[in-house]
Design brief:
Elements lengths: L1 E6 L8 E6 L8 H9 L30 E4 L2 E4 L12 E5 L6 E3 L2 E2 L2 H9 L15 H8 L6 H5 L12 H14 L3 H12 L7 H5 L6 H9 L9
Parallel strand pairs: 1-5
Antiparallel strand pairs: 1-2, 3-4, 3-5, 6-7
The structure holds FE2/S2 (inorganic) cluster.
Amino acid sequence: MNIKIKRQRYPGAESYWQTFVYTGSPENTVAGVLDELNYKDDITDINGEAAPRISWECSCLQGVCGACAMVINGKPALACETFVKDCRGETMTIEPLHKFPVIADLVVDRSVIQKNLRESGSYIKQYMNPEPEEYEHQYSTARCLKCGLCLEICPNYADGSRFYGEVFANDCYAIASKSGKDEVMTEAYDKHFAAGCSKSLSCMDVCPMRIPTLASMAKLNRGLKGGSGK
Ligand code: FES
């Protein structure tokens, strides 16, 4: 199989495509493919030209940390959870997430996610009043990896300057369901999520943790502790 990778050597550099040949097992994940391509003494592309090692990120390699989020065959996905045998065609394309600045090759700067969550206060709230009937959904939203795949696919998310996306809506739900009504949080939810969401729900299709964001939105919109009731 040919592996066509969108490359960029450093922030702001010109990007270009480079194709490699992968002859390993179809049981491998895309993370495994990148590992195999990188761990040869000399890396060469499909034309036999010497190529620099491919920059990409991983940590857990079991779909837990979100570090390996990228665009595989046009779809936002985790490299460690995507298998070669499930990719159709002779050529697999791999690109960095499009909505974040590229640091190198497949490594992007996703710090805007933490910045928005921090500035809206969702990292510093105290959990004061847990509601047993909310436990199941609270657990579900707590599994968010902050990987950015939901932002990559979202037609409303651009650069995180105004609309913060699914990742933020689920954190708002988590805060509202545990901490009680909070006007600052409610205002932030209305401004940075409710006002910009067109409910395409493409975020739910790509979420590796299958977080039911629609349920978070419904609960918040019904006015659950801190929801605006809009
Ligand atoms: S390496 Fe952690 S999710 Fe893929």
